[in-house]
Amino acid sequence: MDWNMGPLCRRGGILLLVFGIAGCAAIPRLNVTYRLPPATGETTRPTPVYLTVQDERRSEEIMGIGARRDFGGTPVSISLAVKRGEEEGHGIGVFELPMLLREGFLRRIEQAGLDVTSERVSGQPEISIVVREFLLDLVDRRWRFAMGYEARLVKDGKVLSSQTISGNGERLKVYGHKQADQVVTEVFTDTVNQFNPGRLLQQAGMENRE
User: Fold this and answer.
1) Alpha carbon distance 98, 129 (integer Å)
2) Which of 112, 126, 147, 154 is close enough to 50 for a disulfide, judged by CB 3.0 to 4.6 Å?
3) What is the DSSP string of the chain?
4) Residue 73 class from Cβ within 10 Å (0-12 exposed, 13-18 middle, 19+ buried)?
5) Which residues touch 172 (CB under 8 Å, ≥6 apart)?
6) Sequence-distant (≥ 6) Cβ neighbours of residue 99 within 8 angstroms
7) How many Cα atoms are found within 13 Å in the side-chain-facing hemisphere of 163?
């Protein structure tokens, strides 16, 4: 290959390189760190449950008009990290909303001493997380985030017990999206940790192994 290009070729090559870099620009990302609560106890025979997540929000959008505009008006990915105690957060991956929530609740349930099975088994209790709200917005230079869901214990198609939980928070936008990450992290952690899987079993009259 002849690399001795003339001025026009070199200029054309530079333009193609610039456009190529622009085309590969990083997708805007919302970074969420879920902080697990302290373990409530150990069990040698964890209760097996199956976990599902149902998205029943009124809109599929995870951002309001102000937040979408600030993130550039393009689709935003959500990365999830999990933190235990004082250790550094461990990155789990980048997810769409239902899987993001499943990853968070999976760890919350296991931390409570239950065993989440990979397949649904007949007669086995199921924990179903029904998402009602998950929305980030930017209003008057304040990041506002709200999250809400209902956790149900289901067996043989019948709802045996449930918990309804919601939370919200806000932070002043100082620069970039750092404060957006912080308010989502805080509310996400608080609302997921309010869920008590052991109590859900107790309410249904099932043995609590938490």
Assistant:
1) 10
2) 126
3) ------HHHHHHHHHHHHHHHHHTPPPPEEEEEEEEPPP----SSPEEEEEEEEE--S-S-SB-HHHHHHTTSS--EEEEEEEETTSPPEEEEEE-HHHHHHHHHHHHHHHTTEEEESS--TT--EEEEEEEEEEEEEETTEEEEEEEEEEEEEETTEEEEEEEEEEEEEEE--STTHHHHHHHHHHHHHHHHH--HHHHHHHTT-----
4) exposed
5) 141, 142, 143, 179
6) 53
7) 20
Q: What is the dihedral of CA 133, 93, 34, 148, to 10 degrees?
A: 10
> 48: which residues sit within 8 A by CB, 6+ positions away?
114, 115, 116, 117, 121, 124
Question: Judging by DSSP bridges, how do beta strands 90-95 and 114-117 pair with one another?
Answer: unpaired
What distance in Å separates the CA atoms of residue 167 and residue 149, rounded to the nearest whole number?
9
CA distance 163 to 149: 8
Residues of the chain with pLDDT below 50 are 1-5, 7-24, 208-210
Q: Which backbone phi and psi does 7 adopt, to 5 degrees?
A: -55, -40
What is residue 9's predicted lDDT score, i.e. its pLDDT?
A: 44
pLDDT in tens, 167-181: 999 999 998 899 999
pLDDT tens digits, 109-122? 999 989 999 888 88
Q: In what order do the strands lie in the sheet with 47-55?
A: 114-117, 47-55, 126-139, 142-155, 158-172
